[in-house]
Protein backbone atom coordinates (compact mmCIF):
# COMPACT_ATOMS: atom_id res chain seq x y z
CA UNK A 1 0.00 0.00 0.00
CA UNK A 2 1.30 3.44 -0.86
CA UNK A 3 0.37 5.93 1.79
CA UNK A 4 1.16 9.30 0.32
CA UNK A 5 -1.28 10.39 -2.33
CA UNK A 6 1.45 12.57 -3.74
CA UNK A 7 4.41 10.21 -3.62
CA UNK A 8 6.83 9.38 -6.36
CA UNK A 9 8.38 12.73 -7.15
CA UNK A 10 11.83 12.46 -8.60
CA UNK A 11 13.21 15.51 -6.87
CA UNK A 12 14.42 13.67 -3.80
CA UNK A 13 15.25 10.33 -5.37
CA UNK A 14 17.45 11.93 -8.01
CA UNK A 15 19.97 12.87 -5.36
CA UNK A 16 20.93 9.18 -4.95
CA UNK A 17 20.31 6.47 -2.38
CA UNK A 18 20.38 7.77 1.13
CA UNK A 19 19.27 6.39 4.49
CA UNK A 20 17.04 9.45 4.53
CA UNK A 21 15.05 8.50 1.42
CA UNK A 22 11.36 8.32 2.18
CA UNK A 23 9.59 4.98 2.24
CA UNK A 24 6.16 5.80 0.92
CA UNK A 25 4.80 2.27 0.94
CA UNK A 26 3.41 0.16 3.76
CA UNK A 27 4.38 -3.51 3.69
CA UNK A 28 3.33 -6.69 5.46
CA UNK A 29 5.00 -9.99 4.54
CA UNK A 30 6.91 -13.00 5.73
CA UNK A 31 10.62 -12.55 5.08
CA UNK A 32 12.24 -15.31 3.08
CA UNK A 33 15.65 -13.77 2.33
CA UNK A 34 17.63 -14.74 5.42
CA UNK A 35 21.39 -15.23 5.43
CA UNK A 36 22.79 -17.23 8.33
CA UNK A 37 20.53 -18.58 11.04
CA UNK A 38 18.16 -16.86 13.45
CA UNK A 39 19.07 -18.06 16.96
CA UNK A 40 16.36 -20.30 18.41
CA UNK A 41 16.28 -18.24 21.60
CA UNK A 42 15.64 -15.00 19.71
CA UNK A 43 11.87 -14.72 19.89
CA UNK A 44 9.95 -11.49 20.17
CA UNK A 45 9.21 -8.26 18.37
CA UNK A 46 11.56 -5.49 17.34
CA UNK A 47 9.91 -2.09 16.94
CA UNK A 48 11.76 0.74 15.22
CA UNK A 49 10.51 4.25 14.49
CA UNK A 50 11.79 7.27 12.64
CA UNK A 51 10.89 9.91 10.10
CA UNK A 52 9.80 7.62 7.25
CA UNK A 53 8.43 10.30 4.97
CA UNK A 54 10.88 13.11 4.44
CA UNK A 55 9.16 14.56 1.41
CA UNK A 56 5.49 15.18 0.80
CA UNK A 57 4.49 15.41 -2.85
CA UNK A 58 8.09 16.13 -3.75
CA UNK A 59 8.52 18.84 -1.13
CA UNK A 60 11.37 17.75 1.16
CA UNK A 61 11.15 18.63 4.83
CA UNK A 62 13.92 20.99 5.91
CA UNK A 63 14.96 19.23 9.09
CA UNK A 64 15.70 15.67 10.12
CA UNK A 65 13.17 15.91 12.98
CA UNK A 66 10.28 16.80 10.68
CA UNK A 67 9.51 13.60 8.79
CA UNK A 68 6.27 11.73 9.44
CA UNK A 69 6.60 8.95 12.00
CA UNK A 70 6.79 5.48 10.48
CA UNK A 71 7.00 2.40 12.66
CA UNK A 72 8.49 -0.91 11.61
CA UNK A 73 7.72 -4.20 13.34
CA UNK A 74 9.92 -7.28 12.92
CA UNK A 75 8.54 -10.38 14.57
CA UNK A 76 10.79 -13.36 15.33
CA UNK A 77 8.67 -16.46 15.91
CA UNK A 78 8.87 -20.21 15.43
CA UNK A 79 7.27 -19.66 12.01
CA UNK A 80 10.05 -17.32 10.89
CA UNK A 81 10.36 -13.55 10.53
CA UNK A 82 7.51 -11.19 9.62
CA UNK A 83 7.94 -7.54 8.65
CA UNK A 84 5.30 -4.85 8.81
CA UNK A 85 5.49 -1.05 8.64
CA UNK A 86 2.81 1.58 9.13
CA UNK A 87 2.66 5.34 9.32
CA UNK A 88 1.31 6.85 12.48
CA UNK A 89 -1.94 8.52 11.41
CA UNK A 90 -1.20 11.84 13.05
CA UNK A 91 -3.22 14.90 12.20
CA UNK A 92 -0.27 16.30 10.27
CA UNK A 93 0.16 13.08 8.29
CA UNK A 94 -3.43 13.22 7.09
CA UNK A 95 -3.17 16.93 6.38
CA UNK A 96 0.05 16.38 4.43
CA UNK A 97 -1.71 13.83 2.24
CA UNK A 98 -4.55 16.22 1.62
CA UNK A 99 -2.65 19.41 0.88
CA UNK A 100 0.50 17.90 -0.62
CA UNK A 101 3.13 19.66 1.46
CA UNK A 102 4.79 19.26 4.85
CA UNK A 103 3.39 21.14 7.84
CA UNK A 104 5.32 23.63 9.93
CA UNK A 105 7.77 21.54 11.91
CA UNK A 106 10.65 22.03 14.30
CA UNK A 107 12.92 23.22 11.49
CA UNK A 108 10.55 23.37 8.52
CA UNK A 109 8.39 26.31 7.50
CA UNK A 110 5.14 26.05 5.57
CA UNK A 111 5.32 27.66 2.14
CA UNK A 112 3.64 31.07 2.09
CA UNK A 113 5.92 33.14 4.28
CA UNK A 114 5.28 34.50 7.75
CA UNK A 115 1.52 34.61 7.39
CA UNK A 116 1.39 30.87 6.77
CA UNK A 117 3.44 30.21 9.90
CA UNK A 118 2.57 32.86 12.44
CA UNK A 119 1.39 31.46 15.80
CA UNK A 120 1.60 27.86 14.55
CA UNK A 121 3.18 25.33 16.87
CA UNK A 122 5.31 22.58 15.22
CA UNK A 123 3.27 19.61 14.09
CA UNK A 124 3.41 16.45 16.21
CA UNK A 125 5.16 14.01 13.87
CA UNK A 126 5.17 11.14 16.41
CA UNK A 127 8.45 9.95 14.93
CA UNK A 128 10.98 9.70 17.74
CA UNK A 129 10.51 6.64 19.94
CA UNK A 130 8.08 3.96 21.02
CA UNK A 131 6.95 2.85 24.45
CA UNK A 132 5.74 -0.68 25.05
CA UNK A 133 3.97 -0.96 28.39
CA UNK A 134 1.47 -3.63 29.38
CA UNK A 135 -0.85 -4.15 26.43
CA UNK A 136 -0.06 -0.74 25.03
CA UNK A 137 2.21 0.53 22.29
CA UNK A 138 2.76 4.25 21.95
CA UNK A 139 4.62 6.32 19.39
CA UNK A 140 6.27 9.39 20.89
CA UNK A 141 7.29 12.93 20.01
CA UNK A 142 8.71 15.19 22.67
CA UNK A 143 6.62 18.30 22.12
CA UNK A 144 3.18 16.70 22.31
CA UNK A 145 1.02 13.74 23.17
CA UNK A 146 1.76 10.13 22.31
CA UNK A 147 -0.26 8.14 19.80
CA UNK A 148 -1.68 4.78 20.77
CA UNK A 149 -1.03 1.99 18.27
CA UNK A 150 -2.10 -1.61 17.97
CA UNK A 151 1.07 -3.56 18.94
CA UNK A 152 0.38 -6.20 16.28
CA UNK A 153 -1.23 -4.44 13.32
CA UNK A 154 0.37 -1.02 14.07
CA UNK A 155 -2.98 0.60 13.35
CA UNK A 156 -3.25 4.05 14.90
CA UNK A 157 -5.87 3.97 17.65
CA UNK A 158 -5.79 7.63 18.65
CA UNK A 159 -3.98 10.40 20.46
CA UNK A 160 -3.40 9.65 24.15
CA UNK A 161 -3.95 12.10 27.01
CA UNK A 162 -3.93 9.50 29.82
CA UNK A 163 -7.42 10.33 30.92
CA UNK A 164 -6.96 14.06 30.40
CA UNK A 165 -3.83 14.21 32.55
CA UNK A 166 -1.69 15.56 29.67
CA UNK A 167 -3.05 19.07 29.55
CA UNK A 168 -1.98 22.28 27.79
CA UNK A 169 1.02 21.48 25.58
CA UNK A 170 0.60 17.82 26.56
CA UNK A 171 4.29 17.06 26.08
CA UNK A 172 5.24 13.50 26.90
CA UNK A 173 8.89 13.16 26.00
CA UNK A 174 10.35 10.56 23.70
CA UNK A 175 12.66 8.88 26.22
CA UNK A 176 10.52 7.32 28.95
CA UNK A 177 12.33 4.98 31.30
CA UNK A 178 11.03 1.67 32.56
CA UNK A 179 12.23 0.26 35.88
CA UNK A 180 12.74 -3.43 35.07
CA UNK A 181 12.12 -4.42 38.69
CA UNK A 182 8.88 -2.56 39.37
CA UNK A 183 7.67 -2.27 35.73
CA UNK A 184 6.88 1.39 36.44
CA UNK A 185 7.45 3.88 33.63
CA UNK A 186 8.70 7.39 34.35
CA UNK A 187 8.76 10.25 31.89
CA UNK A 188 8.60 14.02 31.67
CA UNK A 189 7.21 16.79 29.54
CA UNK A 190 8.37 20.36 29.01
CA UNK A 191 5.86 23.13 29.47
CA UNK A 192 6.27 26.87 29.14
CA UNK A 193 3.10 28.49 30.42
CA UNK A 194 2.94 30.45 32.68
CA UNK A 195 6.68 29.80 33.04
CA UNK A 196 9.20 27.17 31.86
CA UNK A 197 8.84 23.94 33.81
CA UNK A 198 9.34 20.22 33.67
CA UNK A 199 6.43 17.94 34.55
CA UNK A 200 7.39 14.46 35.77
CA UNK A 201 5.07 11.51 35.25
CA UNK A 202 4.72 7.94 36.42
CA UNK A 203 2.77 5.08 34.89
CA UNK A 204 2.36 2.17 37.29
CA UNK A 205 2.80 -1.46 36.30
CA UNK A 206 -1.00 -1.59 36.13
CA UNK A 207 -1.00 1.44 33.75
CA UNK A 208 -2.27 4.02 36.27
CA UNK A 209 -1.00 7.47 35.25
CA UNK A 210 0.02 10.09 37.82
CA UNK A 211 2.04 13.28 38.05
CA UNK A 212 5.11 12.87 40.27
CA UNK A 213 6.32 16.43 40.51
CA UNK A 214 6.52 19.63 38.51
CA UNK A 215 9.53 21.89 38.91
CA UNK A 216 10.40 25.22 37.32
CA UNK A 217 13.48 25.74 35.18
CA UNK A 218 15.06 29.20 34.83
CA UNK A 219 14.70 29.28 31.04
CA UNK A 220 13.18 27.16 28.33
CA UNK A 221 15.83 24.65 27.26
CA UNK A 222 16.12 21.74 24.87
CA UNK A 223 15.82 18.69 27.15
CA UNK A 224 15.62 15.54 25.05
CA UNK A 225 16.32 12.73 27.51
CA UNK A 226 16.62 12.03 31.23
CA UNK A 227 17.74 9.16 33.46
CA UNK A 228 16.19 6.98 36.12
CA UNK A 229 17.77 5.38 39.17
CA UNK A 230 16.17 3.34 41.93
CA UNK A 231 15.55 6.62 43.79
CA UNK A 232 15.62 9.52 41.37
CA UNK A 233 14.64 10.96 38.05
CA UNK A 234 17.83 12.66 36.87
CA UNK A 235 17.78 15.66 34.53
CA UNK A 236 20.97 16.96 32.94
CA UNK A 237 19.85 20.31 31.55
CA UNK A 238 22.35 21.82 29.13
CA UNK A 239 22.38 25.48 28.14
CA UNK A 240 20.70 24.91 24.77
CA UNK A 241 18.13 27.58 25.45
CA UNK A 242 15.46 29.65 23.74
CA UNK A 243 17.02 33.04 23.09
CA UNK A 244 15.30 34.36 19.96
CA UNK A 245 11.60 33.53 20.26
CA UNK A 246 9.95 36.58 18.65
CA UNK A 247 10.76 35.90 14.95
CA UNK A 248 9.59 32.32 15.53
CA UNK A 249 6.26 33.36 17.04
CA UNK A 250 5.78 35.83 14.19
CA UNK A 251 6.31 33.01 11.70
CA UNK A 252 9.47 34.52 10.23
CA UNK A 253 11.78 31.67 11.21
CA UNK A 254 11.37 28.01 12.19
CA UNK A 255 11.46 26.93 15.83
CA UNK A 256 14.95 25.50 15.86
CA UNK A 257 16.29 28.99 15.08
CA UNK A 258 15.10 30.20 18.46
CA UNK A 259 17.70 28.03 20.20
CA UNK A 260 21.24 29.00 21.16
CA UNK A 261 24.00 27.24 23.00
CA UNK A 262 25.11 29.56 25.83
CA UNK A 263 27.93 27.77 27.69
CA UNK A 264 28.35 30.52 30.29
CA UNK A 265 24.99 29.45 31.73
CA UNK A 266 26.43 26.03 32.59
CA UNK A 267 24.65 22.70 32.89
CA UNK A 268 22.25 22.04 35.75
CA UNK A 269 21.70 18.57 37.16
CA UNK A 270 18.36 18.10 38.89
CA UNK A 271 17.60 15.05 41.02
CA UNK A 272 13.88 14.53 41.50
CA UNK A 273 12.97 11.87 44.10
CA UNK A 274 10.75 9.19 42.61
CA UNK A 275 8.34 9.67 45.51
CA UNK A 276 7.77 13.30 44.47
CA UNK A 277 10.01 14.86 47.14
CA UNK A 278 11.87 18.13 46.84
CA UNK A 279 14.22 18.28 43.81
CA UNK A 280 17.93 18.92 44.37
CA UNK A 281 19.89 21.07 41.90
CA UNK A 282 23.62 20.94 41.29
CA UNK A 283 25.39 23.31 38.92
CA UNK A 284 28.11 22.04 36.59
CA UNK A 285 30.25 23.13 33.65
CA UNK A 286 28.36 23.34 30.38
CA UNK A 287 27.76 20.08 28.54
CA UNK A 288 26.26 19.48 25.11
CA UNK A 289 24.40 16.19 24.93
CA UNK A 290 21.17 14.59 23.80
CA UNK A 291 21.11 11.00 25.07
CA UNK A 292 21.58 9.37 28.42
CA UNK A 293 22.37 5.67 28.58
CA UNK A 294 21.79 4.70 32.19
CA UNK A 295 22.00 5.98 35.74
CA UNK A 296 22.23 4.43 39.18
CA UNK A 297 22.87 5.19 42.82
CA UNK A 298 26.34 4.43 44.18
CA UNK A 299 26.62 5.00 47.92
CA UNK A 300 25.59 8.62 48.36
CA UNK A 301 26.34 9.48 44.73
CA UNK A 302 24.20 9.36 41.65
CA UNK A 303 26.00 8.14 38.53
CA UNK A 304 24.81 9.13 35.05
CA UNK A 305 26.24 7.90 31.74
CA UNK A 306 25.60 10.06 28.70
CA UNK A 307 27.01 10.84 25.26
CA UNK A 308 28.66 14.27 25.37
CA UNK A 309 29.47 16.18 22.20
CA UNK A 310 32.05 18.74 21.23
CA UNK A 311 30.17 21.99 21.71
CA UNK A 312 32.57 24.26 19.81
CA UNK A 313 30.24 24.60 16.81
CA UNK A 314 27.40 25.64 19.11
CA UNK A 315 23.78 24.85 18.44
CA UNK A 316 23.80 26.53 15.01
CA UNK A 317 26.74 24.46 13.78
CA UNK A 318 25.23 21.25 15.05
CA UNK A 319 21.75 22.01 13.88
CA UNK A 320 23.01 22.91 10.41
CA UNK A 321 23.80 19.25 9.84
CA UNK A 322 20.31 18.28 10.97
CA UNK A 323 18.97 20.55 8.23
CA UNK A 324 21.40 19.14 5.69
CA UNK A 325 20.46 15.58 6.59
CA UNK A 326 21.15 14.23 3.12
CA UNK A 327 24.60 15.79 3.18
CA UNK A 328 27.03 15.07 5.98
CA UNK A 329 25.93 14.36 9.56
CA UNK A 330 28.92 16.30 10.91
CA UNK A 331 29.50 15.66 14.60
CA UNK A 332 26.24 13.75 15.11
CA UNK A 333 27.87 10.34 15.57
CA UNK A 334 31.08 11.56 17.14
CA UNK A 335 29.99 11.87 20.75
CA UNK A 336 31.93 10.59 23.72
CA UNK A 337 30.53 8.22 26.32
CA UNK A 338 31.02 9.99 29.63
CA UNK A 339 30.16 9.20 33.24
CA UNK A 340 28.98 11.93 35.59
CA UNK A 341 29.16 11.35 39.32
CA UNK A 342 26.79 13.62 41.19
CA UNK A 343 27.58 14.16 44.85
CA UNK A 344 24.55 16.14 45.87
CA UNK A 345 25.55 16.71 49.51
CA UNK A 346 28.69 18.51 48.37
CA UNK A 347 26.93 20.02 45.38
CA UNK A 348 29.54 18.62 43.03
CA UNK A 349 29.63 16.79 39.70
CA UNK A 350 32.74 15.02 38.42
CA UNK A 351 33.25 13.58 34.96
CA UNK A 352 35.07 10.57 33.57
CA UNK A 353 35.46 9.55 29.93
CA UNK A 354 34.39 5.94 29.44
CA UNK A 355 35.42 5.46 25.81
CA UNK A 356 37.20 7.62 23.27
CA UNK A 357 35.42 6.13 20.28
CA UNK A 358 32.94 8.55 18.68
CA UNK A 359 29.37 7.38 19.11
CA UNK A 360 25.69 8.11 19.59
CA UNK A 361 22.45 6.28 20.37
CA UNK A 362 23.75 4.50 23.48
CA UNK A 363 21.95 1.39 24.71
CA UNK A 364 22.35 -1.29 27.35
CA UNK A 365 20.83 -4.56 28.43
CA UNK A 366 17.62 -2.96 29.69
CA UNK A 367 17.37 -5.48 32.52
CA UNK A 368 20.24 -3.49 34.10
CA UNK A 369 18.50 -0.12 33.76
CA UNK A 370 18.58 1.93 37.00
CA UNK A 371 21.48 -0.19 38.34
CA UNK A 372 25.17 -0.42 37.44
CA UNK A 373 25.78 -2.00 34.04
CA UNK A 374 28.87 -3.50 32.47
CA UNK A 375 28.24 -3.16 28.72
CA UNK A 376 27.18 -0.25 26.56
CA UNK A 377 26.13 -0.59 22.94
CA UNK A 378 26.46 2.29 20.51
CA UNK A 379 26.19 3.27 16.87
CA UNK A 380 29.22 5.08 15.56
CA UNK A 381 30.87 6.49 12.47
CA UNK A 382 34.17 4.85 11.58
CA UNK A 383 35.06 8.00 9.63
CA UNK A 384 34.97 11.25 11.58
CA UNK A 385 32.00 13.30 10.47
CA UNK A 386 30.45 10.39 8.60
CA UNK A 387 27.21 8.50 8.78
CA UNK A 388 26.86 5.74 11.38
CA UNK A 389 28.35 2.65 9.79
CA UNK A 390 29.26 0.56 12.80
CA UNK A 391 27.89 -1.01 15.94
CA UNK A 392 30.14 -1.30 18.97
CA UNK A 393 30.06 -3.03 22.33
CA UNK A 394 31.97 -1.29 25.10
CA UNK A 395 32.96 -3.41 28.07
CA UNK A 396 33.38 -1.05 31.01
CA UNK A 397 35.11 -3.69 33.10
CA UNK A 398 37.93 -4.50 30.66
CA UNK A 399 37.81 -1.34 28.55
CA UNK A 400 37.50 -3.45 25.38
CA UNK A 401 35.63 -1.93 22.44
CA UNK A 402 34.50 -4.37 19.75
CA UNK A 403 33.01 -3.03 16.52
CA UNK A 404 31.36 -4.29 13.41
CA UNK A 405 31.58 -1.96 10.39
CA UNK A 406 29.06 -2.56 7.61
CA UNK A 407 31.17 -0.94 4.87
CA UNK A 408 30.23 -0.18 1.22
CA UNK A 409 28.74 3.17 2.19
CA UNK A 410 26.01 1.40 4.13
CA UNK A 411 24.65 2.70 7.42
CA UNK A 412 23.25 1.33 10.67
CA UNK A 413 21.01 2.68 13.39
CA UNK A 414 20.83 2.42 17.19
CA UNK A 415 21.58 -1.17 18.27
CA UNK A 416 19.03 -2.72 20.62
CA UNK A 417 19.91 -5.57 22.94
CA UNK A 418 17.85 -8.79 23.00
CA UNK A 419 18.70 -11.25 25.83
CA UNK A 420 19.12 -14.93 25.01
CA UNK A 421 16.72 -15.71 27.88
CA UNK A 422 15.06 -13.77 30.70
CA UNK A 423 17.58 -15.16 33.19
CA UNK A 424 20.69 -14.91 31.02
CA UNK A 425 23.66 -12.95 32.37
CA UNK A 426 24.00 -9.30 31.41
CA UNK A 427 25.09 -9.02 27.80
CA UNK A 428 24.29 -12.63 26.87
CA UNK A 429 22.25 -12.11 23.73
CA UNK A 430 22.23 -10.20 20.45
CA UNK A 431 22.26 -6.71 19.08
CA UNK A 432 19.59 -5.86 16.55
CA UNK A 433 20.11 -3.05 14.08
CA UNK A 434 18.84 -2.12 10.63
CA UNK A 435 21.45 -1.76 7.92
CA UNK A 436 20.64 0.50 5.00
CA UNK A 437 22.35 -0.84 1.87
CA UNK A 438 23.12 2.18 -0.26
CA UNK A 439 23.73 0.46 -3.57
CA UNK A 440 20.87 -2.04 -3.36
CA UNK A 441 18.54 0.61 -1.91
CA UNK A 442 17.29 -1.99 0.52
CA UNK A 443 17.59 -2.71 4.20
CA UNK A 444 18.57 -5.71 6.27
CA UNK A 445 17.94 -6.45 9.91
CA UNK A 446 21.24 -7.60 11.38
CA UNK A 447 21.52 -9.95 14.35
CA UNK A 448 24.96 -9.56 15.95
CA UNK A 449 26.43 -11.36 18.96
CA UNK A 450 26.26 -8.73 21.68
CA UNK A 451 29.59 -9.67 23.22
CA UNK A 452 31.43 -9.97 19.88
CA UNK A 453 29.80 -7.82 17.22
CA UNK A 454 33.21 -7.77 15.50
CA UNK A 455 32.55 -11.38 14.43
CA UNK A 456 29.75 -10.12 12.20
CA UNK A 457 26.07 -10.99 12.03
CA UNK A 458 24.80 -14.47 12.82
CA UNK A 459 21.80 -13.61 10.67
CA UNK A 460 20.98 -10.93 8.11
CA UNK A 461 17.30 -10.56 7.30
CA UNK A 462 16.87 -9.10 3.83
CA UNK A 463 13.83 -6.87 3.39
CA UNK A 464 12.27 -6.27 -0.02
CA UNK A 465 12.72 -2.51 0.27
CA UNK A 466 14.57 0.05 2.33
CA UNK A 467 13.65 1.35 5.77
CA UNK A 468 14.65 4.99 6.24
CA UNK A 469 16.94 5.77 9.16
CA UNK A 470 15.15 5.14 12.43
CA UNK A 471 15.83 7.06 15.62
CA UNK A 472 14.81 4.68 18.39
CA UNK A 473 12.86 1.54 19.19
CA UNK A 474 12.22 -1.32 21.57
CA UNK A 475 12.62 -5.06 21.65
CA UNK A 476 9.93 -7.05 23.36
CA UNK A 477 10.98 -10.60 24.14
CA UNK A 478 8.45 -13.36 23.34
CA UNK A 479 5.85 -12.03 20.95
CA UNK A 480 2.28 -12.09 22.19
CA UNK A 481 0.80 -12.54 18.71
CA UNK A 482 -2.91 -12.52 18.29
FE1 LIG B 1 16.53 10.46 21.15
UniProtKB/TrEMBL annotation:
The annotated regions of Basic and acidic residues compositional bias extend over 23-33
Query: Which Pfam families does the UniProt record give?
Result: RPE65
Q: Does the keyword Iron apply?
A: yes
Q: Where is the composition biased (Polar residues)?
A: 1-10
Name used for this protein in its record? Dioxygenase
Q: How cofactor binds (record note)?
A: Binds 1 Fe(2+) ion per subunit.
Q: What class of enzyme is it?
A: oxidoreductase
Q: Which range is the signal sequence, renumbered to this chain?
A: none
Q: Does the keyword rRNA processing apply?
A: no
Residues covered by region (Disordered): 1-33
Q: In which organism is this protein found?
A: Rhodococcus gannanensis
Which keywords are on file for this protein? Answer: Dioxygenase, Iron, Metal-binding, Oxidoreductase
Amino acid sequence: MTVSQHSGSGSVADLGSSPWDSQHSEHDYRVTDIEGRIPEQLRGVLYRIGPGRLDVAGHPVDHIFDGDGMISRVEFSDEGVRFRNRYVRTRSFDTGNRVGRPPRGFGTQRPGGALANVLRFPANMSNTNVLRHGDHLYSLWEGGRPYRLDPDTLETLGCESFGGALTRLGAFSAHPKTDPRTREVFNFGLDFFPRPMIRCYRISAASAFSEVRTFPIPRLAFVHDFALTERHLVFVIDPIVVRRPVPVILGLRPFDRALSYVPELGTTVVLVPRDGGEPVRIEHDALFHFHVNNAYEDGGDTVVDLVAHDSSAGWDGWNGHLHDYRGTPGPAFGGQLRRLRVTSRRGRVTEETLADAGCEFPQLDQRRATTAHRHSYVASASVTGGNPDSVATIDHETGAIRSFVVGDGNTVCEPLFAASSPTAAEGDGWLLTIEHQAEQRRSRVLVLPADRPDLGPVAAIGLRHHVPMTFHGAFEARAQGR
